[in-house]
Amino acid sequence: MYKRVLVKLSGEQLQGRFESGFDAERAAWIAKEINKITDHDTQVVVMIGGGNYARGAQLAGGGVQRVSADNIGMLATMMNAIALADVFEASGVPARALTNIKADQVVDQFTHRRALSHLSKGRVVVVAGGIGRPYLTTDTAAVSLALELECDLIIKATKVDGVYDADPVSYGDATKYDKLTLQEAVERPDVRVMDKAAIALAADHKQAILVCKLLTEGNLAAAAAGEPVGTVISVS
């Protein structure tokens, strides 16, 4: 098992059976899967998206400035983090929400030392607010956070079971990659599982990424244990 992993979750995964918003049943299922990791003394950081409420890139335009739109998207991640941490706690998984946007009345501010303190006490740390600045995605924020907290692995939990050379939902003959180098992931236009800025940052610092399907029971724990699941994107 790795000592510390970062799990990147999209906001859409939290909407579950709903067209938008937050599905507590889906969150409780995720808590159960995360618990399989923490039960083996692996520390878990979660970087959460906000697409189930708002996406900055989609909101921009029609009078809404891009900076304002991105700020709204970051606020959406904060709502998810607060709710997700509550569901984790109710499910018996100790968790704390932290945010990179100043909002002391509703959630604690992220600091390096505060995050490490929670992790050392066996709590899952759910981080909101992306990187705290516009024009940067939560994918890029996830890589930055993983580097800051010295995570051994980034687990990108998606709708599909790895990285393909085409959308496997639309193309039945799409080929799955078991392994890719970070350089290949940056250079290949068919690799779209994370934005290129995020992968480039990971490549610069040799940060390993594993892409797997969220809704397969045991996948997150298998990834955290170093078992062959999904697609591994690493230095070699």
UniProtKB/TrEMBL annotation:
**Description of how activity is regulated:** Inhibited by UTP.
Cite the Gene3D superfamilies for this sequence: Acetylglutamate kinase-like
In which domain of life is the source organism classified? Bacteria
Which of the seven top EC classes does this enzyme belong to? transferase
GO annotation, biological process: 'de novo' CTP biosynthetic process; UDP biosynthetic process
| Residues where ATP binds | 8-11, 51, 55, 158, 164, 167
Specify whether Cytoplasm is a keyword of the entry: yes
List the catalysed reactions.
Answer: UMP + ATP = UDP + ADP
Name the keywords, alphabetized. ATP-binding, Cytoplasm, Kinase, Nucleotide-binding, Pyrimidine biosynthesis, Transferase
Q: Which GO terms describe its molecular function?
A: ATP binding; UMP kinase activity
Similarity-based family: Belongs to the UMP kinase family.
Q: What is this protein called?
A: Uridylate kinase
**Species annotation:** Candidatus Mycosynbacter amalyticus
